[in-house]
Amino acid sequence: MSALVELTIFPTDKGASVSPYVARVVKIIRECGLACSLGPMGTCIEGEWDEVMAVVTKCYRELERDCDRIYMLLKADCRKGAEDRLTGKVRSVEDKL
Amino acid sequence: MSALVELTIFPTDKGASVSPYVARVVKIIRECGLACSLGPMGTCIEGEWDEVMAVVTKCYRELERDCDRIYMLLKADCRKGAEDRLTGKVRSVEDKL
Amino acid sequence: MSALVELTIFPTDKGASVSPYVARVVKIIRECGLACSLGPMGTCIEGEWDEVMAVVTKCYRELERDCDRIYMLLKADCRKGAEDRLTGKVRSVEDKL
Amino acid sequence: MSALVELTIFPTDKGASVSPYVARVVKIIRECGLACSLGPMGTCIEGEWDEVMAVVTKCYRELERDCDRIYMLLKADCRKGAEDRLTGKVRSVEDKL
Lengths: 97, 97, 97, 97
Known about the structure:
The structure is a homotetramer.
Chain A: E1 2-11, H1 19-30, E2 35-39, E3 42-48, H2 49-64, E4 69-79, H3 85-94
Antiparallel strand pairs in A: 1-3, 1-4, 2-3
Helix pairs in contact in A: 1-2
């Protein structure tokens, strides 16, 4: 079952500008070996459930080191027998336009 | 660090009425031993990150048994040195009204 | 079509404790005349789409007055021919437990 | 105040494959005149609050025509004195990597 997850995670005790914290999270995601894509409102990751959730936990642990309050949003779309959905879902919509 | 998580999870390949599937998930959450609260748009769970995430994975595995497509939303508010936030956050707002 | 909406809205430029801001929003929602319910991760509102969205905009305008950055999450479940879903959805799940 | 919004909206009464419905929504967004960007888990739109919310309502009305149940997620990040954040937020993170 392919798990396509969009992760948004940031501290809320560090003021309004949090891109240095987001960068630390994105670095972890890019080095995790799974397909991923950075967007303006979150980062998409594709893999098996356990793989993706292990990365999400790693991102949380990274911020937990020096942040006292963390907000996180996870949106997941999981589908059996599907793959390459990071690009495939967009293409499937584009084909119908 | 207290993790207060709101979980919304349902299949999208079983038609518009999914309460039997939601009930299976809520049963798992209620039996997990963590503080929880069922609402109209999701179920809140409070605990340590690893405890809460283990329950979320258990819920996903339950639906994965007979669902081909699953949608999930996770909203998490994690705070150091805080506890009893399932009731405490609402009370803190009510006190200011 | 009944729109059941869960609204989470808070400033991210006011530090980690934002309950005074959330209280201002909840006050607006409670005085709007629609069915509503305050939870630990958001406030649910039920009504017709235009009614609910007008309240959401009013909440945003309230925070916009003195906040420089605002984060918002809206989860909506809209269903034709349905009503009283603020309590009905929870009851429908409870009946199956 | 720039409103950067990620919209995810789909029917839950049309089976597991909903890209034809998503395409109708994306068509509306692309023709609305605001900056936008299609991603695997939602479409980002940037503009003033009222402009963006008018587009969101138009998308909802389009699906309401022939869908009996609609699920929607809206994630908004609103910031005073900011603009071009659809590309600017990603660039700001990339610069720190």
